[in-house]
Design goal:
Length: about 240
Amino acid sequence: MNSSELIKLLEALKLHIVKSLYQQDMKRTDRHQMSFEELLIYYFSAQLAHNEKVAFQSAINRSKIKEITADISDIHFDAERYENKEQLQLLTQGNWIELLQHIILEGATGVGKSWIASALAILAIKMKKRVLWLRVPELLDTLEIKRSEGNHLKYRSYLSKIPILVLDDFGLTPLTARARQDLLEIVEDRSQKGSLIITSQLPHEKWRDYIGDKTIGDALVDRIISRAHIVKLSGKSRRTAD
């Protein structure tokens, strides 16, 4: 096989990084200093790194994460902002993902709930877990649309298969009777299947009153809280810090 045939083969296999490196190396006088095995490792390691970068970016785009540049390495564990900074430090290690545990981030507007949620969600993507970010008001609207189209159960099934579901702005808008039931079913569908990251301005102690129906409120809150790490954020709004 000559060089042109090899290049066509690499193109057919969509090994574009290997192809590019091979074409560059054809012009180098020292390319034969590496052994055959070393050369293969060099080529395919570069291809793998490229594939993983593309896959990661694709996963980020599909996730609809709010703060796509958030990173756990940028979290400042200051006592003023976090009631229990040691708890948050443990969460950044990612064990909650494999243990199928939930995270509740609660605090006033602007204190950084969505940013922390984004950083934890991106950590999950780095651990090869699929993530979907949903604002609760928009989720409930979508469920109503899907119900009118006859696709309500199909959409719920789709959500249940996503390992990490982020529910942003829980407690922001009033709930109808059907919305309460929808939220309960979504939480029940995720039992032993995945985790929730919930952001809320409303303290979890007031969730039952917010939900309104005692039976559904007890069931919904108990199912979440029993498996949840509750992170309370305080301090000045980051939106006005500058």
